Amino acid sequence: MALVSGLLSHALGRLLGLPGLRSGGPAMEQDKALEVYDIIRTIRDPEKPNTLEELEVVTESCVEVHEIGEDEYLVIIRFTPTVPHCSLATLIGLCLRIKLQRCLPFKHKLEIYISEGAHTTEEDINKQINDKERVAAAMENPNLREIVEQCVTEPD
Amino acid sequence: MKDSLLLLARIPAHPDSRCWFLAWDPSGTLLASCGGDRSIRIWGKEGDSWVCKSVLGEGHQRTIRKVAWSPCGSYLASASFDATTCIWKKSQDEFECVTTLEGHENEVKSVSWAPSGSLLATCSRDKSVWVWEVDEEDEYECVSVLNAHTQDVKHVVWHPNQELLASASYDDTVKLYREEEDDWVCCATLEGHESTVWSLAFDQSGERLASCSDDKTVRIWHQYKPGNEQGEVCSSADPSWKCICTLSGFHPRTIYDVAWCHLTGALATACGDDAIRVFEEELLSNPQQPTFALTAHMPRAHSQDVNCVAWNPKEPGLLASCSDDGDMAFWKYQRPESQPLDGDEAVGFGVADHYPPALLPFLQTTTKEASG
């Protein structure tokens, strides 16, 4: 049903030439979500020699994509850190943001959250990892930058 | 409404980086930009184009977050993530770093000069606001370290004609400070925003303060002095500030900057949805409970978040903006015809029809329409 209404709104959009109508529909959003997941699943955990996928820090269903304009999408990721350690959760949030900033080819706005109930200070962490000024400053810290680079760089 | 903001020029001010902030000098002829590439660029107009007159690249080791001109126009201060603030002195077209202010424990987020020119304020992620005094020999001395905020302080700005300082913070509040018996104290805390307050702007009179936030609203605050005729309670000798208007539902994402034009009263916002918006107070509204109407909306003003909007201090309607995409843009804002300034019939668009006669000698006449 969702697919049909998606096609319908797509057709209507083209017919009426209205840019505002969602031309992609849910199918497109699903595609984009998979594209996002493909990029984040290979990020390595800062402490363990495993990927975020292997540790189930991220899963396919943790990525949500919404079309917010012409060829522009809102990407929402909810991740589950393995341990309730504040700085580790912030670090993972940072890695997610940096990798997507570098690798995601389509125009997007990104929101990253700790999945509900996964942490005692989740509001504090969520606020920090979504503050782009804090993220930018963190990435200018050489030690932090080094750790992030190691986590996001694809092995040869 | 899209026609009220006309693009005049778009310039890659800090290519391959983000442009964080812009500041017009007091004469309105120079624009300073700063960014993630650790440089400051000074821009001036040559004919119809904006050209880079100077690059100040050797002052900081990290991102330069904000720049501010002194009221006399001879100095420029730069606030950096490297925890320092540089003071640059201008001689002809050259700039030289004459002092570096140290002391903050981590990133300096903002710097602002008081209208007297002898005071400077800085703020930082270390949660503090510092007040500095500068003497005739260009010697800077920190006279106060204010620890009123409980989190990262994002912005500081001085009142346009009083020695009153305002700060905006990640702790969701705005705080005001003044000097009381040789000591600087926090004299008011403005609560109401539900998330980080990113920026502040006083109106020309200083009676009102606009704040913008990650909560996607702009709030307008009004100063009520003790003994005010509106009957607003002041618990001490300090004026109290009350939120008289909240602009909500206009911005879908974080609002990073707000700028209040001192010539026209127009309010511009820089938003994380890549758009620029302009609001004007509806003149028939109650001044104690004003309504602001959206008079311009430019979606995709930039290809990424807009970080800063700045009104030219001398040319009404000239607005500069900058973005995460590294670009800087210049816009001409014209109040839409359907909203006359006063109760009388609006007669055309001429500058002379809308601005107080006393201002006219100071306004540049617009030359030919820029294609854009």
Topology record:
The complex is a heterodimer of chains A (156) and B (372).
Chain A: H1 2-16, H2 25-40, E1 63-69, E2 72-79, H3 86-103, E3 107-114, H4 122-129, H5 132-138, H6 142-152
Parallel strand pairs in A: 2-3
Antiparallel strand pairs in A: 1-2
Chain B: E1 5-11, E2 19-24, E3 30-35, E4 40-46, E5 49-56, E6 64-69, E7 75-80, E8 85-91, E9 94-101, E10 108-113, E11 119-124, E12 129-134, E13 140-146, E14 153-158, E15 164-169, E16 174-180, E17 183-190, E18 197-202, E19 208-213, E20 218-224, E21 240-247, E22 255-260, E23 267-271, E24 276-281, E25 292-298, E26 306-311, E27 318-323, E28 328-333, H1 351-354
Antiparallel strand pairs in B: 1-28, 2-3, 3-4, 4-5, 6-7, 7-8, 8-9, 10-11, 11-12, 12-13, 14-15, 15-16, 16-17, 18-19, 19-20, 20-21, 22-23, 23-24, 24-25, 26-27, 27-28
Question: Would you write up a description of this structure?
Answer:
Chain B: Belongs to the WD repeat CIA1 family. Chain B: This is Probable cytosolic iron-sulfur protein assembly protein CIAO1. Chain B: It comes from Pelodiscus sinensis (Chinese softshell turtle). The complex is a heterodimer of chains A (156) and B (372). With 156 residues, chain A is α+β, with helices and mostly antiparallel strands. Chain A has helices spanning 2-16, 25-40, 86-103, 122-129, 132-138, 142-152, and strands at residues 63-69, 72-79, 107-114. A three-stranded mixed beta sheet of chain A has the order 1-2-3. The model of chain A has no long low-confidence stretch (mean pLDDT 86). In chain B, the strands form seven sheets. In chain B, strands 1-28-27-26 form a four-stranded antiparallel beta sheet, with no helix packed on it. Chain B starts with a strand and ends in an 18-residue tail after the last helix. Chain A binds chain B through residues 68-69, 107, 109, 127, 131-134, 136-137, 140, and chain B through 18, 36, 62-63, 65, 81, 106-107, 109, 125, 152, 154, 170, 195-196, 214, 252-253, 272-273, 299, 303, 305, 324.
